[in-house]
Amino acid sequence: MSEPVTLRVENTVAVISIENPPVNALSHAVRSGLAEKIQSAISDDAVKAIVLTAEGRTFPAGADVREFGRPRETPILSQVCDLLESSPKPTIAAVHGNALGGGFELALACHYRVVLRSAKLGLPEVKLGVLPGGGGTQRVPRIVGAAAALDLMLTGKPISAQKALDLGLVDQMAEADVADAAMAMARNVIADGSKTRPTRERVEGLQDAVGFANAIAARREKKKNDPQPSVAEIINCVEAAQILPFEAGLAKERAAFDECETGPEATAMRHAFFAERRAVKVPELKGATLREVKLIGVVGAGTMGAGIAIACLDAGFPVVLVERDQDGLERGIQRIVANYDKSVAKGRIDAATGEERLSRLTGTTKMQDLAPVDLIIEAVFEDEQVKRNVFAQLDAVMKPGGILATNTSYLDIDALAATISRPQDVVGYHFFSPAHIMKLLEVVVGGKTDSNVVATGFELARKLRKVPVRAGVADGFIGNRVLAAYRLAADFMLEDGATPAQIDAAMRAYGFPIGPYQVLDMAGLDISWARRKRLAATRAPEDRYVAIGDKICEQGWFGQKAGRGYYIHDQDGGPVENPDVLAIVEEERRLQGIAPRSFSEQEIQERCLFAMANEGARLVSEGVALRPSDVDVVLLYGYGFPRHRGGPMMAADQAGLLTVKNALTNWQVEEPRFWAPSPLFDELIKNGKKFGDL
Ligand code: NAI
C-alpha cells in the first residue's frame, strides 16, 4: 500500500498530503506519517512554510472508527497537533470536504487556515459520548470565546465555511482550488517574514472575561441534568481554557477524554453508532437487483399517509396520494401544505423549495391513477378487512413488478399478501409517527417477499434518510412487540401499587424523553385498546391481564386528543394526574385482591428494561430480529430510547446478563410466562458472551 502521508517541496513550501481513503480518517498510520513528515519539513532548511492538505473528497473527517474504545498508539492526535503548532515555520491548513473531529483539530493546530467554500467544519465527539481530544476544547475558545465554542462542541453540529470565517476560526475562503489558495497564502506569509501564529497564544476569545464566564455558567445550568458525562466535561474543559495555562488545559482535556471514552455512556453510544451501520447488512441485499422507483403512490392521507408523502416529497420523489373521498383528500393535502408552510415560516426551507416540493404532489380519489406508480405505500386504517379490500383494488391496477408496501403496525403481512395475485411484491415499510421526522423504518419481510423488494426498501430508506432495520413477520414486528412488553411490565406495577406518574418519572429519570403512560396519552389509548381486543381470543386464560387501560378507554378517555387519558390535559400548566384513573386503579386492585406495595425508581426501571431486553432476546431467537443490535436500533430511532444507554440489549449487557436473568427468574413466580427468561440468556451466559457478541 502506498504511504498514507506524503511530503513534497515546491520551491520553499513543503506540502504534506494525507491520502487514506475514503475519508482520510486519522488512523495510527496517518498520525505516524504526519509526525514524521512534519518533522522532516521542519528540519529541511530549504522549507520556509508548511501546507497541510488532503487528497480525495475530504480533509480528515475524524478518527478511525476501528480504533474507537481501544488504547491509542502513539503518536496520539494531540502530539501531532503539538508538532504543527510549535513548528518554527508557519503551518497552513488547506481544508475541503468535512473537517470533523480530529480533522478540524488538526486544522486548528495549524497557524493559518484556508477553507473551500463548500467545506464543513465540526466537533461531533459529543455524539459518541466523548469530547474533542486533540486540543479542540482549548484552542477553539481562545479564538471564538466560550459561547460559540460550546455551541460547536455541545451540539456536535458542523458549521459552514462561511460561519467559520465569520467566527474567525478560519482565515480565508477559497472558491475553487483550496490547495492553490493555501500555496498562495504560504508565499505571502513567507514574503511577510514567515511569522508563526500558534493558536495557543491567541487571546481574542478570552478578552471578554465576564462574557466568557457567563456563557459557561449559562450552559452549565442548562445542562445540569444531562446524563452524559462528556457534556459536563466539555463545559469544564472550556472553562479550563480561561483559567488554566494551555498545557494544563490540554492535560485536563486528555484526562476527561480518557475518563469519558471508557465509561458506560460512551460505550453505549459507540454501540449505537456501529449498530446502525450493521443494521443495513441483511441477507437479501447480497446479489439483489434494485427495482426502479421513480414514482411513489401513497394510499390513505391520514396521520401516517400525509407524513410518508412529505418524507417522499422531501427526498425528491413525485407522489400520487389517494384517499377514499374528496373530503379526506383535501384534509390530507391540507396537512401537507401546512407542514411546508410551517417549514417556510420557521426558515427551515425557502418558499420556492416548499412550492417545488408541493408541485410534485398529485391528489386523487381514483385507485386507477396508481397504474404508473412503481411503489405504493398503503397507510389506510389499521383494520384487516379494510386493508384486504384496498389490496384487492391495488392488485387490479398496479403495474407488473410494482412494489406494494404496507405501513401496518401489527397486522400479518403474509396473510394480507396471500389475498392477492403477487405476494412476492408485498412488503412492510413500517414508518413511525411523525413519518417525515422519525428516522426508523422497519422493513418487514414476509415469507414470499422477493429479495429485490427488500433491497429496494433499504435503498428507499437511504434516499429518505431513514434508518432501516429488517424485521420478520410477527405481531408488532420488532418495535411494537418490545413496546408491548414494556407496557405490560409497567401495567403490572401499576396494578401492584405504582402510579402512572411514578412510572413515567422513573423512565424519564432513566433518560426517556417521556414515560410510557405519557406516550399512550399522546398516541391515543384507542390504538392499543383495539390491539388488545384483537388479541383477546388468543390470550391464554392463565396469563395475567390488566384491565385498567380498557376501563379508561370505556370512559372515552383516549388521551391528549380527548383531553383526558392517564392524565388530564385540559388544564393550564400542562398535564396533571387524573384522580379518576387512580380510582379505577384502586378498584381494579380491590377486584383482583391485590394489596398495593411501593416500587423504587430502580425497580421500576429494571422491570421495564429487563422486560424489553427479554422480549428482544425472544425476537432474536424467533428470527424476527436478525441480531440484538437491530432491536437496539429500533428502540433508539423509533421509541425515544436514550442514546447514551445504547438500547435495551446494550443496557442488559451493561447490567450483566446473569443479573438480568436472575431478576427475570425471580419475577417469574408472579407471571410465569411473561417473565420466563428467553433461552438465549443461558446460551450466552454459559459461553461467557453478551448480546453485543452476536
Ligand atoms: P388515520 O386514521 O390517521 O388515517 C387513515 C387514512 O386512511 C384516513 O385518512 C382514511 O380516510 C384513509 N382511508 C381509509 N380507507 C381508505 C381507502 N379505502 N382508500 C383510501 N384511503 C382510505 O390512521 P394512521 O394513524 O395514519 O394509520 C394508518 C396506518 O399506519 C395504520 O395501518 C396504522 O396502524 C399505521 N401506523 C400508524 C402509526 C401512528 O402512530 N399513527 C405509526 C405507524 C404505523
Radius of gyration: 29 Å
Q: What's the structural domain tally?
A: 3
Under CATH at level 1, the class of the largest domain stands as: Alpha Beta
* Widest sheet: strand ordering: 12-11-10-13-14-15-16-17
- The second-level CATH architecture of the largest domain is Alpha-Beta Complex
Q: For the residues shown, what is the average pLDDT?
A: 96
Shape: globular
Task: Outline the fold blueprint.
Elements: E1 5-10, E2 13-18, H1 28-43, E3 49-54, H2 77-85, E4 91-95, E5 98-100, H3 102-109, E6 112-116, E7 120-122, H4 136-155, E8 159-160, H5 161-167, E9 172-174, H6 178-191, H7 209-222, H8 229-243, H9 246-261, H10 264-279, E10 296-299, H11 303-314, E11 319-322, H12 326-345, H13 351-359, E12 361-364, E13 375-378, H14 384-397, E14 403-406, H15 413-417, E15 426-430, E16 440-445, H16 451-463, E17 467-472, H17 479-496, H18 500-510, H19 516-523, H20 525-535, H21 548-554, E18 567-568, E19 576-577, H22 579-592, H23 601-621, H24 628-638, H25 648-655, H26 657-667, H27 679-686
Parallel strand pairs: 2-3, 3-4, 4-6, 5-7, 6-9, 10-11, 10-13, 11-12, 13-14, 14-15, 16-17
Antiparallel strand pairs: 1-2, 7-8, 15-16, 18-19
Family: Belongs to the enoyl-CoA hydratase/isomerase family. In the N-terminal section; belongs to the enoyl-CoA hydratase/isomerase family.
Keywords: Fatty acid metabolism, Isomerase, Lipid degradation, Lipid metabolism, Lyase, Multifunctional enzyme, NAD, Oxidoreductase, Peroxisome
Pfam families: 3HCDH, 3HCDH_N, ECH_1
